[in-house]
Amino acid sequence: MYKVIVFDVGDTLIEYVPDQITVVTDRFADIGIEIGRETALEVSRITELSVAEQILREINGAERMDDDAFMAYINDRIMAIPTVSEQLKSDALKDAFIAGMKRVKQKKTVKKNVHRILQMLKEKYRLGIISNYSAELSDYLKECGLYSYFDAVVISAEVGYEKPDPRIYKYFLEKMSCDAADCLYVGDHPFDVMGAKRAGMGMVWLNNIYDNMPEFIKEKPDYTIRTIDKLTEIL
Length: 235
Hints:
Elements: E1 4-7, E2 14-17, H1 20-30, H2 37-59, H3 67-79, H4 82-85, H5 91-102, E3 107-110, H6 114-122, E4 126-131, H7 137-143, E5 152-155, H8 156-159, H9 166-176, E6 183-187, H10 190-199, E7 202-206, E8 223-225, H11 231-234
Parallel strand pairs: 1-4, 1-6, 4-5, 6-7, 7-8
Antiparallel strand pairs: 2-3
Helix pairs in contact: 1-2, 2-3
């Protein structure tokens, strides 16, 4: 029986407007190219996994890329997607797409039903957060009324470790004075599954954009849901 429910934040409790699928689709439209939803999804998956894979390489001792080099790496992977390379046939089109993505501004908003769900869970469980995020996250959580639901909020920028580094989970467990086996983690990213399961926690994968777990991740979630409101059906 779980005693602690632990949440990711981005794309789990909060979402970004416009969403990434819309952003990608609109940036192609800006340069006169129409793409399908599956191509936009693939761009989003590549972007998400590239960020997480670089974090994992750094955990394993690789040197951190500077921002420009890292963005070039992600863009190269995006341009290698067959349905993208077929459309972006010239350097001018590639440059225009990349420039358009750099100009994107997204707003954060709390997902529908999150307040209701957290209020329900708070009556039965201790709640916590482990998130890869900048230090401003605490202020945002306070502004939108989420912060008070949680007994511990652990943010990578504040503690110096990023998921799936086992040290960030250890830090959380010590802060909460609980065992990993007592915790159920809820997160959207495949690396959330990797990190939580390696830490010994139960795992609910809030799968927003993936058809399947990437093959190189061997850990499996205990539960998979598509929307956050389905969480109450598990617990």
